[in-house]
Amino acid sequence: MFDHAHLSTIVRLFRSESFEPDPTSVRGVRRLITESCQAIGFEPDDPVLVACELATNALRHAETPYQVTFVALWNRLPWIEVMDRSMDLPKPRLAGTYDTGGRGFELVTKLTASWHWDLNPVDRYKIVCATLKGDFDEAGGQHVHTALPAGQLSAPPGPDLRRRTGPVALGTPRSA
């Protein structure tokens, strides 16, 4: 796990940990996010749900090792990134009444200020990034576009294939 709490006057907390594609790894995600939130005095309940949902999506759909990163900058809303090695993009949908899945991104949308994905076709990875809700001035404190691998301080070369989302327009519900 990478943990460096005061890299500069800008970074408040930066923690990142890699996980194997094993369902038991979600416990480690829960621990990482809980400890990170507690370190900055942020209520961990919603961030833990968001991170576990994104990690579960990586497990279920990417089936590759994945990395979870928690970033908190001074005077900004913290965010969570989940990077995996799948080039399959998230497909939010509206679940039908009796569907057993398909509600994850609806939950992520409700519990976060915003979320988006970044795709790097050159290095073959995707990052799903969720900005947490908080008490900061959201007009000046929202994370917009910094979903980067651990330690990377500028956007990767290659095509800009980012998609940012505010409210997510979910697809049509499937019939039960």
UniProtKB/TrEMBL annotation:
InterPro entries: Anti-sigma-factor_SerPK, HATPase_C_sf. GO terms for molecular function: ATP binding. Residues 149-176 are annotated as: Disordered. Keywords: ATP-binding, Nucleotide-binding. It comes from the Bacteria. The keyword Electron transport does not apply. PANTHER family: ANTI-SIGMA-F FACTOR RSBW (PTHR35526:SF3), ANTI-SIGMA-F FACTOR RSBW-RELATED (PTHR35526). This is ATP-binding protein. It comes from Kitasatospora xanthocidica.
